[in-house]
Design a protein that fits this description.
139 residues, alpha+beta, HIT family, subunit A, 5-stranded antiparallel beta sheet, 4 helices, globular
Length: 139
């Protein structure tokens, strides 16, 4: 099931405004978040338009968390954060997704909650491509 008004379902320009597709995982898509104040920040979005985790079967939920785990391991291997924060929001975009936010002791917001989109660190297309390749190499 897809929702044409949802950025994760419609893809294209809607999702391109804030994320770049990295690859398809088993039941989700892995994206690099454009705002890179936290180097390696990604989003794992479920393949179907599901709002709540409670709407998944146990098997679907397990498969989704396997994808989240796979992405988290790749981020750890590629960027060596001191901690990875996980954020599941969706007040305005009701599509099941997790933000995977690497946190660094000497970086922004250590010891606090990460900002959704601080707008401080945008990269060149070449820099985005480099980060994507680092993640892909570790998947």
């Amino acid at each position: 099931m897809k929702d044409p008004n949802c950025s994760y379902c419609a893809r294209g320009e809607l999702v391109d405004a804030f994320a770049i597709p990295i690859c398809e995982l088993n039941v989700s898509t892995l994206y690099l978040f454009r705002e890179q104040s936290h180097p390696g920040r990604c989003v794992v979005a479920y393949k179907d338009h599901i709002s709540e985790i409670i709407n998944l079967t146990k098997e679907e939920r397990d498969a989704f968390f396997d994808d989240v785990e796979k992405a988290a391991k790749a981020i750890h291997a590629a960027f060596h954060p001191d901690k990875l924060n996980y954020g599941a929001y969706g007040d305005t975009g009701c599509h099941l997704h997790f933000h995977l936010v690497p946190k660094y002791k000497d970086g922004d917001e250590w010891g606090g909650t990460f900002q959704m989109n601080p707008g401080k660190t945008l990269l060149t297309e070449a820099e985005y491509a480099e980060r994507i390749e680092k993640i892909k190499a570790c998947l």
